[in-house]
Amino acid sequence: MADKMALAKAINESLRHALEADPKVLIMGEDVGKLGGVFRVTDGLQKDFGESRVIDTPLAESGIVGTAIGLALRGYRPVVEIQFDGFVFPAYDQIVTQLAKMHARSLGKVKLPVVVRIPYGGGIGAVEHHSESPEALFAHVSGLKIVSPSNSSDAYWMMQQAIQSDDPVIFFEPKRRYWDKAEVATEAIPGPLHKAQVVREGTDLTLAAYGPMVKLCQEVADAAAEEGRNLEVLDLRSVSPLDFDSIQTSVEKTRRLVVVHEAPVFFGSGAEIAARITERCFYHLEAPVLRVGGYHAPYPPARLEEEYLPNLDRVLDAVDRSLAY
């Protein structure tokens, strides 16, 4: 059976399933209980599972993550919400010096199954510190898994896989896609958490993206098809680890690659992909790997964000430049 649901609802249903399946799963965060979260992703969960399982916390991100680490050490599986992307930085120390390091520090004896949920990215007309894309900061840190779904089905299954993981997972939720609906097969068998997926077959060029930019790349592929160009769209799904094998397979077929993400291009995840694929596919590439993303500047006020974010024309321009070689 497949139900059509919004991405936010899919995460809600996934969290509900996890709470039902394992009494050690807890949800914590600012306003996640009575309010149901600012995006209503946790709506109804505290009512159904109680205040000891779905916990409204003080406004203290470092305390939220630090408490989750202590709970994980005692056998729980906390799922913590950082209300907005730009609010995660007070917890950055806890995440990169404790959460990411404890497994190695204990020579493998200690596991920290903590999921840190972060609504991220722009496109909602928000104020400062509400539209950032800090995934590359966390991907640089070993010991963390970084994933981002682009659709409701992946949101449902990837959340459950993240909760079941014995490693800490940073779960970036594309907030501009929260209301996009798609079918979710709740009885299906999911694929591997960190496996990329081809969401559109093509032969002329590969567009690689994750999270909010996958839908844009599909729109770019539709526009390019009107000009007789056949683009492949690859949903990376995971930023760390990255599925380089799937990227390589696609690039060996299309011989061109454009990487798209909202985060700034400078030192972004696309830079690592470009470097690694250039090494792996040097004799297959017919053009340099190109990147499209945000600018190396603070995220702008809402009235300017459409100029900052990658859009159809900017990605099509990269496609044209690649195909011109």
- Side by side, the strands of the main sheet go 3-2-4-5-7-6-12
Mean pLDDT: 97
Task: State the helical fraction.
Answer: 25-40%
Q: Work out the number of β strands.
A: 14
Tally of DSSP helical segments: 12
Overall 3D form:
globular
Q: Mind describing the biggest β-sheet?
A: 7 strands, mixed
Approximately how much beta-strand content do the residues carry? Answer: 15-25%
Which segments are poorly predicted (pLDDT under 50) over 5 or more consecutive residues?
Answer: none
Structural class: alpha/beta
Distance N to C terminus: 47 Å
Order of helices and strands: EHEHEHEHHEHEHEEEEHEEHEHEHH
User: What is the radius of gyration?
Assistant: 19 Å
Protein model, in words:
Keywords: Oxidoreductase, Thiamine pyrophosphate. This protein has helices at residues 7-21, 45-49, 61-73, 92-99, 102-105, 135-139, 152-164, 213-225, 244-254, 269-280, 305-308, 312-323; strands spanning 2-6, 25-29, 54-56, 77-81, 115-120, 145-147, 169-174, 181-185, 197-200, 205-209, 231-235, 238-240, 257-264, 290-294. The protein has 325 residues and is of the alpha/beta class. Strand 6 (145-147), helix 7 and strand 7 (169-174) form a beta-alpha-beta unit. Helix 8 crosses helix 12. It is globular and about 60 Å long. The N and C termini lie far apart (47 Å).
